[in-house]
């Protein structure tokens, strides 16, 4: 996992051209004005999902990981806690859902605070727990760029 300020995203563009395209989208788009929904960046290889939701209590948020796509998660407004942890600290709760590219887990990890102006890059296999309320539920606008991993 990489966690940094969006203003410093250029230092990660050398990782992969698709990651670079996703970070460029986040830096150039007016994140507060994008309509909710899906935005194609490079077809099925890189696309953005603009979401609005209420953060939730920790106990109802699930640990998850992906196999096909990396996530670049960026909060445009509001704030949320994001759980993260090493794969060895988690046990699968069931089968991997290939259609949704998600597998859920039980385990323990650490947390970070995802605020506007920050992003986190979660390659496939990085277990994370998004959408957790900081203290009380708040409305969040978040963009998740899905990057097909090679």
Note down, in words, how this protein is organized.
The chain is mainly β and 150 residues long. It has a single domain, classed as Jelly Rolls. Helices cover 8% and strands 47% of the residues. It contains 1 helix and 12 strands. A 6-stranded antiparallel sheet has the order 1-10-5-12-3-2, with helices on one face. The radius of gyration is 14 Å and the shape is globular. The relative contact order is 0.31.
Percent of residues in beta strands? over 45%
Number of strands: 12
Structural class by secondary-structure content: mainly beta
CATH architecture: Sandwich
Note the quaternary state here: single chain
- Order of strands across the widest beta sheet? 1-10-5-12-3-2
What is the N-to-C succession of helices and strands? EHEEEEEEEEEEE
What Rg, in angstroms, do the CA atoms define?
14 Å
CATH evolutionary superfamily? YhcH/YjgK/YiaL
CATH topology: Jelly Rolls
**Which CATH class applies here?**
Mainly Beta
Low-confidence stretches are: none
């Amino acid at each position: 996992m990489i966690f940094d300020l969006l203003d410093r995203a250029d230092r990660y563009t050398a990782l992969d051209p698709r990651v670079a395209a996703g970070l460029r989208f986040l830096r150039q788009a007016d994140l507060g004005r994008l309509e909710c929904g899906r935005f194609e960046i490079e077809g099925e290889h890189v696309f953005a999902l603009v979401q609005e939701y209420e953060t939730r209590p920790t106990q109802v948020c699930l640990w998850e990981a992906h196999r096909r796509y990396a996530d670049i998660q960026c909060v445009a407004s509001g704030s949320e806690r994001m759980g993260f942890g090493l794969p060895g600290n988690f046990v699968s709760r069931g089968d991997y859902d290939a259609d949704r590219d998600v597998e859920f887990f039980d385990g323990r990890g650490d947390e970070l605070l995802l605020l506007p102006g920050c992003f986190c890059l979660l390659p496939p296999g990085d277990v994370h727990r998004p959408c957790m309320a900081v203290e009380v539920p708040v409305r969040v606008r978040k963009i998740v760029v899905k990057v097909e991993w090679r």
